[in-house]
Amino acid sequence: MIDFVRNVRLWFAPQRIREEGGTPDYRFSLANERTFLAWLRTALALIGGGFAVDQFLPDLRWGWRVGLALALLASGVLCSLRAVNHWVRCERAMRRGEDLPVSRFPTVLSLAVAVVAVAMVVVVLVGWAG
């Protein structure tokens, strides 16, 4: 937990990461940044999908519409927060010469998206109106 709090502080003071270890090859730092941006694109897509479900499926039963929209929106929020945390953790590991951190988040995110997709399939097969 202490490490997580330290990482959150580094979100707002990334220059402090330079105080740890040595400077890694710039190609690795830039690859880490591209991965961060890919996570942000995924978060934006999930958030956009949440708004799309809410706005473009007015005939969908309220509980289904709100549930699916909130699941996508929450996934987008978690994905964006995870993106910056993962960037900091990887940058620190590279500077220290450590192994890159592993995470279960991609699995959890994939399962959440799959559950929403299956729910959408059920909605399409059963019908929109309730």
Task: Describe the protein.
The structure is a single chain. The chain starts with a helix and ends with a helix. Helices cover 75% and strands 0% of the residues. It is mostly helical and 130 residues long. It is built from four helices and no strands.
Write the layout of secondary structure elements.
Blueprint: H1 2-11, H2 26-56, H3 62-96, H4 105-126
Let me know the number of strands: 0
Number of helices: 4
Q: What Rg, in angstroms, do the CA atoms define?
A: 19 Å
- Uncertain ranges: none
The assembly state of the depicted protein chains is: single chain
Index terms:
single chain, 130 residues, mainly alpha, 4 helices
Brief synopsis:
By secondary structure, the protein is mainly α.
